[in-house]
Specification:
Blueprint lengths: L1 H19 L3 E6 L2 E2 L3 E3 L5 E2 L1 H13 L2 E6 L5 H6 L5 E2 L7 H4 L3 E2 L8 E6 L18 E3 L5 H13 L4 E5 L3 H9 L5 E5 L2 H9 L5 E5 H8 L7 E9 L10 E2 L4 H16 L2 H10 L6
Parallel strand pairs: 1-5, 1-6, 9-13, 10-11, 10-12
Antiparallel strand pairs: 2-3, 3-4, 7-14, 8-12, 8-13
Length: 281
Amino acid sequence: MKKFLLILFSLSLISVTAIGNAKSIRIGTEGAYPPWNNLNSAGELEGAEIDFGNEACARMGVECEWVTQDWDGIIPALLQGKYDIIIAGMSITEERKEKVNFTNGYMTDGARFAVLKGSGLEGLSVAKFTGGVNKVNLNNAGGKEQAAIGQLIAAMDGATVCVQSSTIHQNFLEKHMSGAVRVKLYQSVDDHNLDLAAGRCDAILADVGSIIDFMESDGGVEVAFTGPTFSGGVFGDGVGGAVRKEDTDIVDMWNKVIAEMSADGTTAEITKKWFGRDISM
């Protein structure tokens, strides 16, 4: 037994030393979720998380080795060893914690519905909700917030809402609007954005920053927000890096640099550059 424990201890030291002395770290990202992460026209990765990850790697003294992966397979590919950490606009949720560990959160953004201008759903301004509620935190939803959700459900009854599959946005619709709306799933936000612009969706639900990015493109000029901004509950506790359960050393490394970049304002400046506002944590 002592020999067995000694072997386990030795292996753990090797693991920690290997990570500590690593010259590069493999980061999985989607590359299709602007302004968080995206492949530009030259095929290069760019976005808030790319700048964030590159700065974090520089501070850790390692090279970032970015790996793009479709969203639906992004956690399975991590578990299979394709990369060491996911930096891809992934919200920290209890459901995902069953499969992976998370770093501390580094950015956060609310979720909101968007529709075409002039549609019957465009007029769901916050003034039409009980008490003028413009933000609904599902972690602490009182009477006014519950009433706002109820009014939104009534207004969207029978509508087709398009969301990216395997996301917190799909989870919200299934938990809070099941039976009231028809949910249409897509592999990427670009796909459901195109269908909204073409009139094949009545509404989309996505992060505020992602929708703003779409609105500022040629294809999104006829798109408008509607209803309140949602956070908490199924939307999780901000965006963090996902790591395999056994890789606690990687979590520690990233938490240290996340704290440093938050304290000195670096993450705030990165988010202002890409989102036009501070969404750092």
